[in-house]
Amino acid sequence: MTTAAIINPMSAGGRTARVWPAVERKLGIQRLEVRYTSRPEEATALTRFALKEGFDRVIAVGGDGTINEVVNGFFEHGAPVRPAASLAVLPLGTGGDFRRSLGIHGLNHAIEVLRDGRVAPLDVGQVRYRAHDGQTRTRYFANLVSFGMGGEVARRAKNALSRVSGKAAFLYATAEVFLRYRPKTVELFLDGAAQGESHTILNIAIGNGRYHGGGMHVCPKARLDDGLLEVTVIEALGMFELARDVRVLYSDNLYVHSKTKHFHARQVVAEAAAAVSIEVDGEPLGTLPVEISLLPRVLPVWLPR
Length: 305
Known about the structure:
The protein is of the alpha+beta class. It contains 8 helices and 16 strands.
């Protein structure tokens, strides 16, 4: 098996670059080629190039943003670049929501998975959205899309603290949005329904995977290989309600909360009259409207046994 590692050296405030040599020695992969990113979205191009060169496996080394870019490199013109090639993740970045969805508990566990894990085909989401320049764009995602408060936090997560600590930057952005956020009204259309359903929201998460926001178990019933999206609507909450109930909203039992609703669908369309920010696997990409669908079992991924 030939393996390419796509590394974001600046993830986790530059820690990834510092620890990679030791991680590479621990991996002990004989036929490994390492390629570093130097700018946003370069991981997509490097992955696509590696697959066209004939690599059998690509390891995404970094956080959720790096993994998302690598996943996008597996596809071109709506189809897999190299259908038999597999994805593996080494979680060395700030965000670890996708590795949680995979059942990987940290770096050492991820290394074990690379040595003796299993490969299984997982679903991949496809989202069409309005980018910040007003153009309609398409992107793939492995884990989750959200809009509302989640989109606003993602927009602010790269701030003055990012060079010190990605986690601190994220917590600062969350607190800032928490104090200023005003609920938005969104129309949801599930599976081609002609009639939408209106929701005044704190946040809506549409998950292939289960987690976002640094461990918020926002789509607890989602499965990565069932051909379905889980849709979690958190309706508008006052500041006191949100502060009081945040523990419930971060748990795997959030559906007991009276302000949550959930649905399953194969396709989701969301529209809004006002600007509502979206994030895809933690990356702020644009605003509503969005159209989200699934490509079932198209991406072989290394999983724990």
